[in-house]
Amino acid sequence: MTESPDTKAADDEVCRRVKNGLKPERNGLAKSLYPRPCHERPSKNRCHTAEEEVRPGMGRGGWVGEAGVYAASYDGRLYSRPFIEYFEETPMMVAVLTYMSYGILTIFGYVRDFLRHWKIERCHIASEKEEQKDFVPLYQDFENFYTRNIYMRIRDNWNRPICSVPGAKMDLMERATYDYNWTFEYTGWVVQDVINLGSYNYLGFAENTGPCADSAAEVTMKYGVGVASTRQEIGNLDRHEEMEKQVARFLGVESAMAFGMGFATNSMNIPALVGKGCLILSDELNHASLVLGARLSGSTIRVFKHNNMQSLEKLLREAIVHGQPRTHRPWKKILIVVEGIYSMEGSIVRLPEVIALKKRYRAYLYLDEAHSIGALGPRGRGVVDYFGLDPCDVDVMMGTFTKSFGAAGGYIAGKRELIEYLRSHSHSAVYATSMSPPVVEQIITSMKCIMGEDGTTIGSERLQQLAENTVYFRKRLREMGFIIYGNNDSPVVPMMLYMPAKIGAFGREMLKRNIGVVVVGFPATPIIESRARFCISAGHSKNMLDQALNIISEVGDLLQLKYSRHRLQPSSARPFDDDVYEDIDD
């Protein structure tokens, strides 16, 4: 882009200002990150083999390897270990039957809506009053049609109340419905010792015994449960200060600050960092909190294909070359927004490549480690630790305490100037009530366990157990013939169900056999990619996992869920990245 005197003057003015906690820099055009054309097929003998997702119609530019899954090349010099992910293509017959299932349900849905319109069938769903018929409709979108006619048929699989600690095993309150899932009644019975494969309790710290529970109880007796004020008024306790220092040391950054809600950590802080005249480059599978934060910021948003570095680099180049729409002035800031572990895909961000692109094009990086902090890396310090990278290369580090730490809330970490800016400009910091003291103590104690500062090896043992459980569980599911998404080391394990009827059937059949699972469908996933999502914990013993796997296999045979055409052959002595497959006919 040719610079005019006006443009250059505006650029100089931007460079002199430090705005929104991030120092603006010129975004310069540079050569491609990739040393060779992206379409070239990688050598079969390369020691580092990555596999990238390719779905019908998404055009990921991958190649079909011997394993029968799709793979894409990447710069192996940036990785110190194999980076393997599985995203097997949906079998054609399964895709056709899934579309037919939704088509049949849609037809019946419109028939039932017709009957409801003429008062032949009673409608329980929210709708406008007759006197409001001339107003703009509130309940006419497709999501509401889906809720009325599809979601309500399988609603019993969600919102199940538990009456125990959500540990490796839990107790569920039994409920029944007599009006096809519109309302529920409790029977008074409790389903005991249900193996919990749904909670984000990655390191098993969601417990009512042990050092964390004891410390939280002690702090409760001293400080109480609530603070009844914001941090900026009289709600700033010494435990809050200690927690934030602990988080900064844990992450290896200059400073950190905590918030009472993980969702609000994203949705309320992104608007404080970027605004009009800024560009956000967001992964297409980012969490709803990131999407909401980006929209609230008023920035221009452009979406790149999931974990696809060619797509990201293309957007970065276009942003540098063309600048802002109409004026073509350079963007004030370019912010790349990614997650450490994607909660519905089980995939891990290609962070070394993202950082390389971020440095090359002078952009900023916002990393959401909600699911990866505590669950990845030899020291449990997230995806940065997993790849052995420098935390200073990530401009904004975000994470939550709700998963690996068994607590609540979230954090933002990075340079001291960034955190001081957010303390006075973030809506979450200024207006939100301070975190509860026992929750703060839970975070401090669990983090000390992970760091080994409690004088025990509990933290390192749980990290090792989680890693072993994850690899074992994923390997066994692939051997059984299920289609499993995501990275080998991700404790989030999506298993594809596809058809809408099998969403409810799988959840119910598993609960009948005392296994609690989470099933996921539209709108949390694409409408034809319904799945069960297992979350592995360090609290799971091998016997628990074997019991769960045997039942999953039994239910999989019952519901015909073993869709994979490239079944992994069981082998006790197989290299990490040398999987052996057999072809399965459709």
TrEMBL record:
Biochemical pathway: Lipid metabolism; sphingolipid metabolism; Sphingolipid metabolism
Aminotransferase class I/classII large domain: residues covered: 193-552
Region ranges (Disordered): 33-52
GO terms classed as biological process: ceramide biosynthetic process; sphingosine biosynthetic process
Enzyme class: transferase
Assigned GO CC terms: endoplasmic reticulum membrane; serine palmitoyltransferase complex
Cofactor names: pyridoxal 5'-phosphate
Localization, UniProt: Endoplasmic reticulum membrane
Membrane topology: Single-pass membrane protein
Keyword tags: Acyltransferase, Endoplasmic reticulum, Lipid metabolism, Membrane, Pyridoxal phosphate, Sphingolipid metabolism, Transferase, Transmembrane, Transmembrane helix
Entry EC no(s): 2.3.1.50
Record field: compositional bias (Basic and acidic residues): 37-52
Example of a GO MF term: pyridoxal phosphate binding
Stored InterPro entries: Aminotrans_II_pyridoxalP_BS (IPR001917), Aminotransferase_I/II_large (IPR004839), AON_synthase_class-II (IPR050087), PyrdxlP-dep_Trfase (IPR015424), PyrdxlP-dep_Trfase_major (IPR015421), PyrdxlP-dep_Trfase_small (IPR015422)
Family from the record: Belongs to the class-II pyridoxal-phosphate-dependent aminotransferase family.
Record-linked PANTHER family: CLASS II AMINOTRANSFERASE/8-AMINO-7-OXONONANOATE SYNTHASE, SERINE PALMITOYLTRANSFERASE 2
Protein name (record): serine C-palmitoyltransferase
Annotated organism of origin: Oreochromis aureus (Israeli tilapia)
